[in-house]
């Protein structure tokens, strides 16, 4: 019994000895805040000592934080990479220091030899699901779409645009007339939507807004209402993340569809990391999280209640 006990102890002790550095992008959206909440919870439950660094959406701050983690000699590093390029040098330094790196929720344009695995959704598929919902909803009516892109150069912005365009290709009645970054924030999403409304006959010529995340969609909804139009009917609203507030809008008929993105990227990441550090088991280079469409028919009030206390 005592040997089992000490084995158990050593197991717990092992996780407790693990120190992980986490370079988080910032707190630009409700979804990002939830990812941080869940990651801190997951680390606590597993006895992992998590060193957290918020980069205020600046890549140079992320690179500085990663260098700091390397200097501290952490056991592993998590990075949510704000943009897809510019990571080769610092990841090569982590590799030289034999510190495994796991990417959370965004991919990078670099060799996958430079990281252990990436835990992300299929962002092209998310854009496709959003586009397919609109295709189905508008049928053969003319529909001029305005697009609020995520952070310029980020993998979700690139991929969600690609997927949406694939879905509407071949449906010439649906066109994207304007497309601009709202940097994944409510404030910018509202500002850019205001400019789209001004440019499109007070918004009367806009049939739908496709926002790469719900926070920009919530900002757009405010702009649509301030222009005296009805979001969800005069202008359809489709976005991605499935944060609680988009379900409040849906329950009011002010938003139409969202594609769910789980904030729990850290759970799968810590699972494979603990195994890799314990016995060298290599995880797949990509661990894909699920994507699910929600529309007004999916009990938005009930979904809001189920999500409202999850740290968004
Ligand atoms: C997507 C993630 C995006 C969210 C936004 O995987 O990186 O970043 O969709 C967040 O809410 O800003």
From TrEMBL:
Name all Periplasmic binding protein domain ranges: 22-267
Which keywords are on file for this protein? Signal
Q: Which CDD domains match?
A: PBP1_galactofuranose_YtfQ-like (cd06309)
Highest taxon of the lineage: Bacteria
Question: Where is this chain's protein located in or outside the cell?
Answer: Cell envelope
Q: Where is the signal peptide?
A: 1-15
Q: Pfam families this protein is in?
A: Peripla_BP_4
Q: Which family does it belong to?
A: Belongs to the bacterial solute-binding protein 2 family.
Concerning NCBIfam families, the annotation shows: YtfQ_transport (NF041827)
Report the protein name in the record: Galactofuranose ABC transporter, galactofuranose-binding protein YtfQ
Species of provenance: Paracoccus aurantius
Q: What is the lineage of its organism?
A: Bacteria, Pseudomonadati, Pseudomonadota, Alphaproteobacteria, Rhodobacterales
